[in-house]
Amino acid sequence: MQQYGETLLQVSLFIYAIQFLPQIIHNLINKNSLVNISILTQFGMLFIVLCDLVQEFHNDAHWSFILIPLIYCTCLTIQQLQISLNNRNLNPVINLMYAMLLSIAFLAIRSNNTLVPQTSIVIELAFNFAIWVPQIHKNIKQKRCDGYSLLFVVLSLVAILCELASSLIITDNIVIHINLIVCSFTICFVLYQKFYYRNTTLQTR
Q: Within a 13 Å sphere around the CA of 49, how many CA atoms are in the beta-carbon half?
């Protein structure tokens, strides 16, 4: 069973490494959909991936485990640039905060304080609970759900389900289990919104 858990974890990590590629292409093709991306969800993703990066460096993880959050962080930064270039009225403070978070993460990686990786775990779990809530709210407010591509949302769901199954096999940490279950439900709701608002748009045409 342990082997199955590790295999599922590897699958989820592989998905995390590639899932932003179709999203970046989606943003290039559908520039108008960038206004539907929640900045809070964008920053939530950044918090999570930076915390993960800090943990991997402090745990002296294998280079492949460090490469995945680095790729994810790079893709997030590309998306942030796409959002900024598409919206000239975007408050410059947002991009400044983005750069500050990257700088803080770099300092945390360089730090020798043993509390740093422990703190990053707590922050990651806290943000993972509610990462998709701002996006769900924005979809309801704008009555659309085209910011994130269908493929990105589906890959997110598959990755989180693989991670959940892996955690149920490998660890008995109830906090991690609840965290992943809640995150799975929120992604399912975003997926529901994708189809609901698409059907609503088709009916009004």
A: 25
